Amino acid sequence: MNKFWNWVRNEDTNAAELIFNGPISEDTWFGDEITPAMFRSELSKVSGDLTVWINSPGGDVFAASQIYTMLRNHKGKVTVKIDGIAASAASVVAMAGDETLIAPTGMLMIHNPATIAIGNKSDMEQAIKLLDEVKESIINAYEEKSHQSRAKIAHMMDEETWLNAKKALSLGLVDGILFDDKNNDKPTDNDTPAEEDTDGNTPDVDEPDKANGKLKRRKTEDISAMSYSAANTMESLIKRISALYTPVTGTPIEQLDKRLSLLRRDV
Q1: In DSSP terms, which residues pair with 163 in a beta bridge?
Q2: Helical H runs in the chain?
Q3: Dihedral-angle region of residue 177 (phi above 0 means left; psi in -120 to 50 means alpha; beta otherwise)
Q4: Ranges 45-54, 174-183, 189-198, 243-252, most confident
Q5: At what angle do helices 121-146 and 150-158 cross, to 10 degrees?
Q6: Which superfamily does CATH assign the domain made up of 5-192 to?
Q7: Which of 162, 165, 161, 135 is nearest to 150 (CA)?
Q8: Which of 66, 83, 110, 126 has a C-alpha 20 to 30 A away from that of 164?
Q9: pTM above the 0.85 mark?
Q10: Distance in angstroms (rounded) separating the CA atoms of residues 171 and 193
């Protein structure tokens, strides 16, 4: 069995810590998976508060849903601490914390659910419907934690969005950053990046220009709390390659062919 459970005791209180380190699966195959059955067995030994340290790439969305529900149903306070990565289904588990914190170097990733389907056209259509419903169920967890719009969350999932600590905090997907005693509260409207519209585009925002006392436009690239997605990364790469590309100048190949033909005739 995967030992992912540690107890911490001191003279004043008994505190339980859960080391959630590994993929999430309905069954265990390689010995490092975290399954709902294992989780339920260990969680039943705890009646008070507990801390869950998460470092997981995710896994089975239905197994993650069970673990999420167990944590939400726990009688004591549940504090989730992301010390490495909470990706895919593990990010759903992270939403179960009464308080969710992330390390300054931690990452959170959300994306669309995926599956493997075999069969005819009808089977494929049913698989698509299932994926749509699973996505809506995942959005429920993100929405309840962050209070962001469903359209915005859905767009972020479409792009496979990677969030650093500051961006996750600004979006409300976590409640604070570990070791940051000064700024563990969520940013106010004055220091939170501009909200995206329903298409996922972030508009420019006005900010004071101290030089002339007027407002100036600020682009989203100026914001330090950034999110990373597969689409954005590819777009950035294409722009960089395009900037390095130097158009080749010279005689078009069609003209060279014509000149070569004339030379052959003269010979």
Answers
A1: 108, 227
A2: 36-43, 61-73, 89-94, 121-146, 150-158, 165-170, 230-244, 253-266
A3: beta
A4: 45-54
A5: 120
A6: 2-enoyl-CoA Hydratase; Chain A, domain 1 (3.90.226.10)
A7: 135
A8: 66
A9: no
A10: 9
Averaged pLDDT of the chain:
80
**In terms of Cα–Cα distance, which of 74, 87, 75 is closest to 20?**
87
Per-domain residue ranges of the chain: 5-192, 194-225
- 87-90: long-range contacts (C-beta < 8 A, 24 or more apart)? 87/56, 87/57, 87/58, 88/57, 88/58, 88/59, 89/24, 89/58, 89/59, 89/60, 89/61, 89/63, 89/64, 90/20, 90/24, 90/54, 90/56, 90/57, 90/58, 90/59, 90/64
Structure token digits, residue 106: 């931690």
**In this structure, what token pair is assigned to residue 262?**
């004339």
Residue 206 bridge partners (DSSP) = 217
**In this predicted model, what pLDDT tens digit does every residue of 125-165 receive, in sequence order?**
999 999 999 999 999 999 999 999 999 999 999 999 999 99
Crossing angle of helices 61-73 and 121-146, in 10° steps, is 30
How many CB atoms are closer than 10 A to CB 130? 13
Compute the distance between CA of residue 263 and CA of residue 245 in angstroms, rounded to an integer. Answer: 34
